[in-house]
Amino acid sequence: MVLDPSQQDELQDAPQTHQQDISKNNPPLFTVKRGVIAVGMLFVFVSVPIIYGLLFPGQKLVKAQAEREFIIDENFTDVRKILVRKDVAKDIIALGGDSEFVEQQWSAVGGDVNPTSIFDLGWRLELHGILKVRILDDYIGKHVVPMDQKVEITVDLVDSRSVLEQGTDRLLAYDMVTRFSRTADNKTRVQLKLMQEINAEAPWFAGAIAQNIVNESVQRSLANQERGIRQVIEDNKHDLPIFPLR
C-alpha cells in the first residue's frame, strides 16, 4: 500500500505526539524530586522550632488575679466572733487547697479598745505579723514561704491581707485580701481577692496555655476558699462566745 505524502507526515508525527502525552502524564523525575525536597524543607522549618521549644522551654512571667464575692446568711456579729475565736484569718490561704498553715507570729497589736465598757461600739483592733504557709502545688514546688499579714477588726468589719514577703524561683508574688463586712440587713458579705505572679516554664508557643492554667488555678483557689469559709461558719455557728455583745 502506498501512502500519500500527508499520511506519511501524520505517521511521522505520531511518536512525537505520544511522547508529549506521556510527558504530560508523567512529569520529569527532577521535578518530582524538587517537590519532595520543598515539602521536606517546609517540614523541617516548622518542626525544628517546635522541637526546640519542647526540649528547651523558656521562662514566662504569668500574672493572674481574680475576685469573688458572696453572702453568708448569718448574723455578722456571730460570724465575726467565729472568725476571731477560731483565728480563721490564718487558715484562709490554706482553704484554697494548695497550701497549709505552718505558724503565725504577731509582732504588733494595736487599735482603739475601751476596756471599761463592754457596750462600746467604736472599738477597733489591729494585728500585724508573719504568717508562714507551706506551698503544696506540684508546679510551683513545695516550699515554706513567709507572708506579711495585717488584720483589722471592728464592730462591722474583719479585714485581712496577706502579701508574700519572700518568693521562690516559681512563685514571685502573692497578694490575698479577705474582707468580711456587715450588710444592711445584718448578714455577712465576704469579698475575696487574689493576685499571683508565677515564673512559668513553657515553650515559646505555649504562653497562652500557661496563662490559662494560672488563671484557672486562681479562680479555683477562691472557689475552694468560699466553700471552706462557709463550712467553718456552719460548723461553729452554735458554739459562740458571749462577748463582745455586738
Structure description:
About 7% of the residues have low confidence. The radius of gyration is 36 Å and the shape is globular. It folds into 2 domains: 51 residues; 178 residues, START domain (Alpha-D-Glucose-1,6-Bisphosphate, Chain A, domain 4, 2-Layer Sandwich), CATH 3.30.530.20. The protein has a 7-stranded antiparallel beta sheet. The chain has 246 residues and is α+β, with helices and mostly antiparallel strands. The chain contains 4 helices and 7 strands; from the N terminus they run ααβαββββββα. Strand 3 and strand 4 form a beta hairpin. It is 36% helix and 35% strand.
Write the layout of secondary structure elements.
Layout lengths: L4 H21 L3 H27 L2 E15 L3 H10 L13 E14 L11 E12 L8 E11 L2 E8 L6 E12 L5 E15 L4 H30 L10
Antiparallel strand pairs: 1-7, 2-3, 3-4, 4-5, 5-6, 6-7
Which short descriptors sum up this protein?
single chain; Alpha-D-Glucose-1,6-Bisphosphate, Chain A, domain 4; seven-stranded antiparallel beta sheet
Radius of gyration: 36 Å
The CATH architecture of the largest domain can be named as 2-Layer Sandwich
Measure the end-to-end span: 129 Å
The biggest sheet, with number of strands, parallel, antiparallel or mixed sense and barrel status, is: 7 strands, antiparallel
Structural classification: alpha+beta
| Fraction of residues in helix | 25-40%
CATH class of the largest domain: Alpha Beta
